[in-house]
Design a protein that fits this description.
mainly beta; Maltoporin, Chain A; 2 domains; 14-stranded antiparallel β-sheet; 6-stranded mixed β-sheet; 5 helices; about 10% helix
Amino acid sequence: MQVGGSWRQYSLNSEGTIFTDYDGPINYQEYGAYMQVQKKMVDDRLKFTGSLRYDKADNFDGNFSPRISASYSLGSSKTRNLRASYQTGFRNPTTQDLYIGLDAGRAFLVGSAPDNLDRYTTPAFPVRNATGRALLGKSTVALSGRAAYENAFTLASVLAGAPKKANFAYVQPEKVSAYEVGYRAGFGRMAFDLSIYYNDYEDFIGNKTVIVPFFGKADFSDGGVAGLALQSGDYKAFQIYTNSTADISSYGGTVGYTTKIFGNYDFGVNYTYAKFDFDKASDPDYKAGFNTPEHKVKVSFGNTSMFENFGFNVNFRWNDEYFWESSFVDAMVEANSVMDAQINYSVPKWKSVFKLGGANLGGNEYVSAPGVGQIGSQYYFSWTINP
């Protein structure tokens, strides 16, 4: 049996450059506790594990996360293993989801913490429409973060020419129910591992783009004045942080194989499949940001003792292209192939290990996300002493 707890204190202090901490740090906390019980049975072939977590963060109700798993070893030497698990979990909104207040160019980003909505205000913009200037009693207007959540149109409805009021709730913790089954087997110099999973999400956290008019009510309860704001370009786009009500799931699996070849050389290959299941038509304003390649492959080859005190390892990694969504940019990330290698030499009398290696030896620059710097080749040398 294991028990434990945790406590974390956040203190945001960007001096208003990213968060709405203009007048000083924003402080909030989260804490939790857990208990886990593990029991072996049936001649230690069956292992049962059950656990329960409780977590609480400022701004949100507490969450319980029960988990259960079992594994069973087969064969006289117990070298084959079947496993299955059911887990529940949740993800609290990040500091950005809660307290950001930033002009990202294409939209204003505003977090949905209750004390963040009125603290964030955009710069003043000129009002083009004469009716709008008359209603406001001034020629410029600044928009609050609250307006993005309470007086805005959905982007999809504006693009379709039929503006509709957005009714998106403040962001809440995301929950998931996860199912996994797996099999692992060792046969002499070979080992095989297979796992398959399915995740069912509730309240998946993401972004929605909304259109905030400079004047008028988005529900048209004032006679449709906000329509004039749209016609004259008196509006701004905001990206808000909320949860999707759509059915969202992900599933996939991993298969791996390792063996010895050419005597004592290690060879391994691993394939990972990850699929995100989300019907965009069911929630057109939602940006999920799964940002994961559907296919990934890794191949490794090496020898820890090719000859006395000398070893090496070579890895090849590949992933296919995938679509990246974020608050700042949406774009395809191209497929990439990367070769890494390392050699190491031990000097026992010096109690030392020397390593020489490189990453992305092919030199083809690639990006891991749009908008970030390209990743080129890296080379290193190290000398480690273990006294």
